[in-house]
Protein backbone atom coordinates (compact mmCIF):
# COMPACT_ATOMS: atom_id res chain seq x y z
CA UNK A 1 0.00 0.00 0.00
CA UNK A 2 1.21 3.54 -0.69
CA UNK A 3 3.13 5.29 2.08
CA UNK A 4 1.50 8.61 2.93
CA UNK A 5 2.98 11.67 4.63
CA UNK A 6 0.26 13.88 6.14
CA UNK A 7 1.12 17.47 7.09
CA UNK A 8 -1.85 18.90 9.00
CA UNK A 9 -1.89 21.24 12.00
CA UNK A 10 -5.42 20.45 13.24
CA UNK A 11 -5.03 17.52 15.71
CA UNK A 12 -8.55 16.17 15.18
CA UNK A 13 -8.24 16.18 11.39
CA UNK A 14 -4.71 14.78 11.53
CA UNK A 15 -5.68 11.91 13.83
CA UNK A 16 -8.88 11.15 11.93
CA UNK A 17 -7.21 10.99 8.51
CA UNK A 18 -4.28 8.99 9.88
CA UNK A 19 -6.55 6.44 11.57
CA UNK A 20 -8.75 6.07 8.48
CA UNK A 21 -5.80 5.50 6.14
CA UNK A 22 -4.08 3.09 8.53
CA UNK A 23 -7.27 1.01 8.69
CA UNK A 24 -7.02 0.70 4.92
CA UNK A 25 -3.48 -0.59 5.12
CA UNK A 26 -1.45 2.56 4.48
CA UNK A 27 1.72 3.32 6.35
CA UNK A 28 1.26 6.91 7.52
CA UNK A 29 3.64 9.49 8.98
CA UNK A 30 2.25 12.78 10.27
CA UNK A 31 3.60 16.25 10.97
CA UNK A 32 1.93 19.34 12.42
CA UNK A 33 4.06 21.99 10.71
CA UNK A 34 5.60 22.52 7.30
CA UNK A 35 9.10 22.50 8.75
CA UNK A 36 8.57 19.16 10.51
CA UNK A 37 6.94 17.77 7.39
CA UNK A 38 9.95 18.61 5.22
CA UNK A 39 12.23 16.87 7.73
CA UNK A 40 10.00 13.79 7.69
CA UNK A 41 9.95 13.79 3.90
CA UNK A 42 13.60 12.80 3.54
CA UNK A 43 13.46 10.21 6.31
CA UNK A 44 10.09 8.58 5.52
CA UNK A 45 10.28 8.64 1.71
CA UNK A 46 6.49 8.57 1.12
CA UNK A 47 4.69 7.68 -2.09
CA UNK A 48 2.35 10.64 -1.71
CA UNK A 49 2.03 13.84 0.30
CA UNK A 50 -1.26 15.03 1.82
CA UNK A 51 -0.62 18.69 2.53
CA UNK A 52 -2.82 21.13 4.44
CA UNK A 53 -2.98 24.50 2.73
CA UNK A 54 -3.34 26.64 5.86
CA UNK A 55 -0.36 25.73 8.08
CA UNK A 56 1.19 27.93 10.78
CA UNK A 57 4.59 29.36 9.92
CA UNK A 58 5.56 27.80 6.58
CA UNK A 59 2.22 27.37 4.84
CA UNK A 60 1.21 24.63 2.44
CA UNK A 61 2.01 26.63 -0.67
CA UNK A 62 5.56 27.28 0.57
CA UNK A 63 5.99 23.61 1.42
CA UNK A 64 4.75 22.65 -2.03
CA UNK A 65 7.26 24.99 -3.67
CA UNK A 66 10.07 23.50 -1.56
CA UNK A 67 9.11 19.95 -2.49
CA UNK A 68 8.89 20.79 -6.18
CA UNK A 69 12.42 22.21 -6.16
CA UNK A 70 13.80 18.68 -5.97
CA UNK A 71 10.96 16.18 -6.31
CA UNK A 72 7.91 15.31 -8.40
CA UNK A 73 6.28 13.51 -5.46
CA UNK A 74 2.48 13.36 -5.91
CA UNK A 75 0.84 16.07 -3.78
CA UNK A 76 -2.79 16.44 -2.78
CA UNK A 77 -3.69 19.71 -1.09
CA UNK A 78 -6.17 19.79 1.80
CA UNK A 79 -8.15 22.97 2.31
CA UNK A 80 -10.77 23.75 4.92
CA UNK A 81 -12.60 26.12 2.62
CA UNK A 82 -13.47 26.34 -1.03
CA UNK A 83 -11.59 29.61 -1.38
CA UNK A 84 -10.90 30.09 -5.09
CA UNK A 85 -7.77 32.17 -4.59
CA UNK A 86 -6.12 29.73 -2.17
CA UNK A 87 -6.97 26.71 -4.30
CA UNK A 88 -5.56 28.26 -7.47
CA UNK A 89 -2.35 29.25 -5.66
CA UNK A 90 -1.97 25.68 -4.39
CA UNK A 91 -2.45 24.23 -7.86
CA UNK A 92 -0.04 26.74 -9.40
CA UNK A 93 2.55 25.77 -6.78
CA UNK A 94 2.53 22.23 -8.15
CA UNK A 95 -0.22 20.28 -6.36
CA UNK A 96 -1.71 17.44 -8.40
CA UNK A 97 -5.17 17.63 -6.86
CA UNK A 98 -7.02 19.07 -3.88
CA UNK A 99 -9.68 18.02 -1.39
CA UNK A 100 -11.95 20.34 0.58
CA UNK A 101 -12.20 19.38 4.27
CA UNK A 102 -13.96 17.73 5.93
CA UNK A 103 -13.69 14.69 3.64
CA UNK A 104 -14.55 11.07 4.23
CA UNK A 105 -11.67 8.60 4.28
CA UNK A 106 -13.02 6.79 1.23
CA UNK A 107 -12.91 10.05 -0.72
CA UNK A 108 -9.29 10.67 0.30
CA UNK A 109 -8.41 7.07 -0.52
CA UNK A 110 -10.01 7.35 -3.97
CA UNK A 111 -8.08 10.55 -4.74
CA UNK A 112 -4.81 8.95 -3.58
CA UNK A 113 -5.31 5.99 -5.88
CA UNK A 114 -6.30 8.20 -8.80
CA UNK A 115 -3.18 10.37 -8.44
CA UNK A 116 -0.88 7.36 -8.11
CA UNK A 117 -2.39 5.67 -11.15
CA UNK A 118 -1.12 8.60 -13.21
CA UNK A 119 2.45 7.43 -12.65
CA UNK A 120 1.78 3.67 -12.57
CA UNK A 121 -0.16 3.19 -15.78
CA UNK A 122 1.74 2.52 -18.99
CA UNK A 123 1.42 5.13 -21.68
CA UNK A 124 -0.29 2.78 -24.12
CA UNK A 125 0.58 0.37 -26.92
CA UNK A 126 2.04 2.97 -29.27
CA UNK A 127 5.74 3.29 -30.02
CA UNK A 128 7.54 3.83 -26.72
CA UNK A 129 9.40 7.00 -27.73
CA UNK A 130 7.65 9.63 -29.82
CA UNK A 131 9.22 12.76 -31.25
CA UNK A 132 7.22 15.95 -31.66
CA UNK A 133 9.59 18.61 -32.87
CA UNK A 134 12.20 18.98 -30.12
CA UNK A 135 10.00 17.13 -27.65
CA UNK A 136 10.67 13.42 -27.01
CA UNK A 137 8.01 11.51 -25.06
CA UNK A 138 8.91 8.06 -23.73
CA UNK A 139 5.58 6.45 -22.95
CA UNK A 140 7.04 3.26 -21.54
CA UNK A 141 9.61 4.96 -19.35
CA UNK A 142 7.34 7.89 -18.49
CA UNK A 143 10.00 10.46 -19.28
CA UNK A 144 10.01 13.63 -21.36
CA UNK A 145 12.98 15.44 -22.88
CA UNK A 146 13.29 18.61 -24.89
CA UNK A 147 16.30 19.07 -27.17
CA UNK A 148 17.93 16.16 -25.36
CA UNK A 149 17.43 17.55 -21.84
CA UNK A 150 15.18 15.67 -19.40
CA UNK A 151 12.16 17.57 -18.07
CA UNK A 152 10.79 16.71 -14.64
CA UNK A 153 7.00 16.50 -14.67
CA UNK A 154 4.61 16.01 -11.78
CA UNK A 155 2.19 13.05 -12.14
CA UNK A 156 -0.74 15.16 -13.31
CA UNK A 157 1.47 17.00 -15.81
CA UNK A 158 2.80 13.72 -17.22
CA UNK A 159 -0.65 12.14 -17.52
CA UNK A 160 -2.04 15.26 -19.18
CA UNK A 161 0.79 15.36 -21.72
CA UNK A 162 0.46 11.64 -22.45
CA UNK A 163 -3.28 11.96 -22.98
CA UNK A 164 -3.11 15.01 -25.24
CA UNK A 165 -0.15 13.77 -27.30
CA UNK A 166 -1.79 10.38 -27.89
CA UNK A 167 -4.25 12.13 -30.20
CA UNK A 168 -2.50 15.08 -31.89
CA UNK A 169 -4.84 17.77 -33.22
CA UNK A 170 -7.82 16.30 -31.35
CA UNK A 171 -9.57 18.85 -29.16
CA UNK A 172 -10.40 17.78 -25.60
CA UNK A 173 -12.80 19.72 -23.41
CA UNK A 174 -11.84 20.48 -19.83
CA UNK A 175 -14.46 18.03 -18.60
CA UNK A 176 -13.06 15.26 -20.79
CA UNK A 177 -9.58 15.92 -19.40
CA UNK A 178 -10.91 15.92 -15.84
CA UNK A 179 -12.44 12.50 -16.45
CA UNK A 180 -9.40 10.97 -18.14
CA UNK A 181 -6.54 12.57 -16.18
CA UNK A 182 -8.02 13.31 -12.75
CA UNK A 183 -10.77 10.66 -12.84
CA UNK A 184 -13.38 13.20 -11.76
CA UNK A 185 -16.49 11.73 -13.35
CA UNK A 186 -18.78 14.43 -11.99
CA UNK A 187 -18.82 18.01 -13.28
CA UNK A 188 -15.36 18.71 -11.92
CA UNK A 189 -13.26 21.78 -11.29
CA UNK A 190 -11.79 23.16 -14.53
CA UNK A 191 -9.16 25.01 -12.49
CA UNK A 192 -7.32 21.71 -12.09
CA UNK A 193 -6.94 21.51 -15.86
CA UNK A 194 -6.05 25.14 -16.45
CA UNK A 195 -3.44 25.24 -13.67
CA UNK A 196 -1.84 22.01 -14.89
CA UNK A 197 -1.74 23.32 -18.48
CA UNK A 198 0.02 26.49 -17.31
CA UNK A 199 2.61 24.50 -15.35
CA UNK A 200 3.16 22.15 -18.28
CA UNK A 201 3.58 25.01 -20.73
CA UNK A 202 6.16 26.63 -18.46
CA UNK A 203 8.20 23.44 -18.69
CA UNK A 204 7.92 22.38 -22.33
CA UNK A 205 7.24 25.56 -24.30
CA UNK A 206 9.90 28.00 -25.53
CA UNK A 207 7.40 30.84 -25.04
CA UNK A 208 4.56 29.78 -22.71
CA UNK A 209 2.48 32.78 -23.75
CA UNK A 210 2.66 31.62 -27.37
CA UNK A 211 2.41 27.84 -26.97
CA UNK A 212 3.48 25.52 -29.74
CA UNK A 213 2.59 22.17 -28.15
CA UNK A 214 -0.39 22.72 -25.84
CA UNK A 215 -2.82 24.91 -27.73
CA UNK A 216 -6.03 26.53 -26.47
CA UNK A 217 -9.21 26.62 -28.54
CA UNK A 218 -11.33 29.16 -26.74
CA UNK A 219 -14.73 27.84 -25.84
CA UNK A 220 -13.73 24.25 -26.62
CA UNK A 221 -10.63 23.15 -24.70
CA UNK A 222 -7.08 22.08 -25.49
CA UNK A 223 -5.23 20.13 -28.15
CA UNK A 224 -1.68 18.96 -28.75
CA UNK A 225 0.36 20.40 -31.66
CA UNK A 226 3.05 21.03 -32.56
CA UNK A 227 2.31 23.75 -35.05
From TrEMBL:
Q: SMART domains attached here?
A: REC, Trans_reg_C
Its recorded name reads Response regulator transcription factor
Key words of the record: DNA-binding, Phosphoprotein, Transcription, Transcription regulation, Two-component regulatory system
Source organism's superkingdom?
A: Bacteria
Positions carrying 4-aspartylphosphate: 52
From the UniProt annotation, which stretches of this protein bind DNA? 126-226
Residue ranges constituting the OmpR/PhoB-type domain according to the UniProt record: 126-226
Cite the Response regulatory domain residue spans from the record.
3-116
PANTHER family in the record, alphabetically? DNA-BINDING DUAL MASTER TRANSCRIPTIONAL REGULATOR RPAA, REGULATOR OF RPOS
Amino acid sequence: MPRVLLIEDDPSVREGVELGLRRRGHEVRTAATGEDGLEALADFRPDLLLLDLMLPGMNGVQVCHRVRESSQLPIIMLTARGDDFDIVIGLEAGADDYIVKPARTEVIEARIRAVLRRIEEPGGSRSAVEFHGELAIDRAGLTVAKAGERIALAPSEMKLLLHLSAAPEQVFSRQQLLEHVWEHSYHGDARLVDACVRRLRNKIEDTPGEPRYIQTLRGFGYRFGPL
